[in-house]
Amino acid sequence: MSEFLRIFKDKKRISFLLGLFLLNLIFILKDNWAAIDVSNAYEKAIKEYQSMDIDEAYEQNKINVDKYYEEAWSYATDSEEQAAALKKAFTHEKVTPSIEHIRKYADKYQGMLDNASRMITFGLVGGKETFAYQNIRKTLIDFADIEGLDVKLENDKTVNAFLEFEMTDYMIILAILLIVASFVEEQKKGLFFIIRSCAGRNKLVFTRQIVLFLSSFFISLAFYGSTYVTFGLIHGFAPMDTLVQCFPVFDNCYTIMSIGTFVAVMILLKTIVLYMIGNLFWFMLNLFNNMLTSVGIMSVFFVLEYIAYNSTIEGNIYDILKYFNIFNYISIEETYIHYLNIDVLGKCVGILTFSIATLLLSTVAFTVIATVLAVNKRYTPSKSLRLVEIVRKKLSVISFAGHTSLARHEAYRFFKCNGVLVIMIVFGIFMYMSYEKPRPEYDQVQVYVNEHYSFVEGKLDETTDAYLIEQRKQLEKEKEELAAYVEENPDYASTQGYIYAEENLRVREEALNIMDGENVRLRQLKAEGHDVCFVNYVGYRNIFMVSSISTYVSYLIPIFFVVLCVATVFSYDNEYNLGRFLKATPRGRQPVLRLRVTYAIISTVIVWAVMNIIELYKVHTTYGLHQLGTEAASVNIFVGATSHMSIITVLILLYATRLVVLICVALVAMWISSMLQSNKISYVINLVALILPAAFVTIGAELFGWISYIDIYKAHSNVSDLVAGNYIAVIPYLICVATGVASYMRLRKKMCA
Amino acid sequence: MEDIKLEIKDLHMKYATKVAIEKMNLELTPGIYGLLGPNGAGKSTLMNIITDNLKATSGEILYGGENIVSMGSAFRRLIGYMPQQQGMYDQFSAKRFLQYVSAIKGVPKKQAKEQIEKYLQMVGLDHVAGSRLGSFSGGMRQRIMFAATMLGEPKVFLFDEPTAGLDPEERIKIRNYISKISGDSIVILATHVVSDVECIADKIILMNGGNIIKNETPHELIRGVEDKVFEMKCTTEDIERLNDTYKKGNIRQGKDGLYFRVVADEKPEGFETIKGEANLEDVYLYYF
Known about the structure:
Chain A is mostly helical.
């Protein structure tokens, strides 16, 4: 009981756990809050179809979708009425897969039987001893119970959202690592020998296993329970006794159970997964006696597991690597919704069975190993494994040992001891895992605009005029022809074909109006002495005019990682009481300061480069960045441009200002670090001072923009103002640079005076 | 020949309302100086001013006639400072840490290699040169700090409580290392532990409340209290009463029992004068 109290009465620990819990909810709300209206409409549509027979619902759904689309085309483009009609059409269209699923499900098993019979008859599966034959046979057996199953239409949004949302999986892992870290606190606080000399030391180990299991259960229950409930409140609940087979996402699930049972089973399975991971971490901590080494080894292990999980191609002999894998256990719900059998030592085994069996085996194994190690532990403060010491000594021969270059020693200190190398690797992995190519969504008008630009881009002369005139003539001609046809055939005016044709002409006219307007604007600029031409603005719009939450998050990321890199540069000396000693040496002041600032800037440049190269790459490969050498005034987003700056100059200005902002953030973080006596406190204070305000701006609290660097980092409007000759836009940068310079001056005074 | 002389002239250091060093004047030439005084006497403050970690309120310190502040890194190249706190990077190995210290002291590579090997051997830690400092005991860490102080072969050594927290054997080792290095260097050893300096110091500087009380050889100091040392035989039951009465006294285990020892200008009642047996601890008791 006292061990429970010790762990859960710790205010810092409870705050972190609550923080993770709230963060999980924030992530849910951030992505789904705006979808409440859509979800309400969806729920209403489902209820409408629930009152009908499924075949009737299917027909009615088709009619409704066509009806609302037709209604939408009848209204003016971009009008409120059209938007409302389109919303209804999309909503009913989204219900279609559910209706189709219910309609076809009754015949699913018969279909499987027919398919199997065909495959066997035509000799496509080989003999009874082959895996293919066993696979078919097992599939029929597994799915036998679904025959005649009564499935009905239900609201599946909550279930889909719950299954797709992965953030909770990683939050609970962080939570359990926090609990396990408390098991080794006695080592740091010098209590280890007292505890080891007591009679109850083994009992303590077993108590901790109970703590770990119960923590795993309550964490899973709290996090997944709240996730499901939150999604339910946003998207609407289906009754908890609804069979999972009623939802399209469970089309390949043969286990007959209600959604309530599924959620409960998930919580139980995640409890076991969490318990296993907790024991794995505990085992690592006891093995390496060092939190950083343990976290490092765990991270490497997770990376290797992730690679194995994502690289394995289904159907080959390495299937086992994918399903005997920690990431498979973390996403164990996937084994319920994807049906697959694999060859395990010649036997046909389902991935669900295999996953659960190996999960249980791994859990037992890690529990036993962790317990045995904890019971038998002989602790020597900060002493690593003998093997690690041997490796370290060997490595020291080939590393910086033997050199007395201050630059190399400071590099070792910065990248290895301050953990910057690990942070950079984590940053790289994060960027790799979060990379997503944007999917351009063009409306019809933009499609035609893009087409016109492909002809006129880079030019502004008689040929462009001639092209636009020709396009206008063609359009007018088609309009006349349509009008003439309708006059001859009045019935045609009420057909779908006419509506589409008229809409097409309208969209093309709108596109042409945009091009004509652009032509006038560019001609005027040319007359004022600007060297401009037609430039498709879409790519530049995606750099300069984005303001969604997800893009704000992408501005927060570089600031976050830069602060992490530099937060302990100077607090490291304070923690190890080396400040006075360094200052008493000939090179321990200016030279050391310059080197540390240099390495901080190098790491900042790396973060900046990675972030912005990825941004440029994404935009250029998706939308294209055209005519970089021409004047920025050519791009219509730079309204009121007075400067003769080229587009490439503007881009350089934008990215250069971001680099300057990041460097200033790094300098401020280092100054804060110099005033603090421990690395942990430095991380916390820096995160509170520099990251938290930026995070609040990201979720919409604009007031925090005054004390955060994120708005200046975003920089779009400032750079646009500069192009327009509005030099007041420079002021935020000057203030930012002033903070950076002031921080450096304070650092220099502290270290060198 | 280099003029190795450290002159402290009218040095004054004031923190807000507290005076840490009061108009100090001192001249130090090659030799070992024991800076003896209780906690708060100003010893560490003096060390920090000499190493330019603190700016004095007024006064100056000259080395070879030149102000050490204006000498800057040129002066710091000549000093070897062992601070009171055992400051080192736990994640570094012993050898790497000494290489790092060589680098920040600007010791040329070849010399650094030789010196690191020499001093690791001297302090008896060459067999654990590759081990992490985090795994070292307190005594081992102090010895590494000593080796780090020696690097660059400084002319002015500053040891601030070098034996703090060490067992008697480690204390003796450190004392022996210090006595070996004096040569043509100025060694300032700040401590409140008398035994650290009584055998090795050429001169003892007694310091209290920011002031220098005495600056003499150990022999001269002891002679000064020779007739002021008094003892009384006592039992363990008497000790509490005697401590309450005389506040500052020392208890000695003699061949035939316990003796309570005081150092005072006048002989207290019941005490016997002890002639010829005064030591530096008696000096400490007398002045502090």
